[in-house]
Predict the 3D structure of the following.
Amino acid sequence: MYEDERECAVSWAIGRGRKKRRVARQKQSEVRVELSRRAALKQQKKNEKERKETEKKLHSVDIGKLRTEFPNISDETHQSLLQILNGTIVGLDICHTWYDGDSNEQVVYSGRVEKLKKTKLKKCYVIAYWLENESYEDATDYEMTPWALGADLLYEDLVLC
């Protein structure tokens, strides 16, 4: 090759190699993000399964035997759990952490327990939730069973204020 052709070919090859490396790094970064997202989702599903088991355990256990079924909880947590299961938290403010599947992050919500709905088959709390940068007027109502709230309390995702 002549010197001009050679310089042109080498310069083209260097540019092409640089572009390929940049694309490869970008692809590798995207793969890492996707693997991280999948790992977080898998961990969240595992946590949800454990919580469901705890909910079932709370639903089946007698309130007087909570201490024996959950011996490692503090006295404060025990008292809060009794309040939740007895239905005496209506009117209290809460702070509740939930997993957001879209952003793969834990999101903190403020809330107020509005009322306890009882039917023949089930009972559930109606809770008004709003984000940290919002106010009570922006709240959205959700229904949650006492056992789901109890499980969240035991997993330290719920705080009664």
Remarks:
- The longest strand covers residues 105-118.
- The beta strands are 93-100, 105-118, 123-131, 140-144, 158-160.
- Helices lie at 3-60, 66-69, 75-86, 146-154.
- Residues 56-160 form one domain.
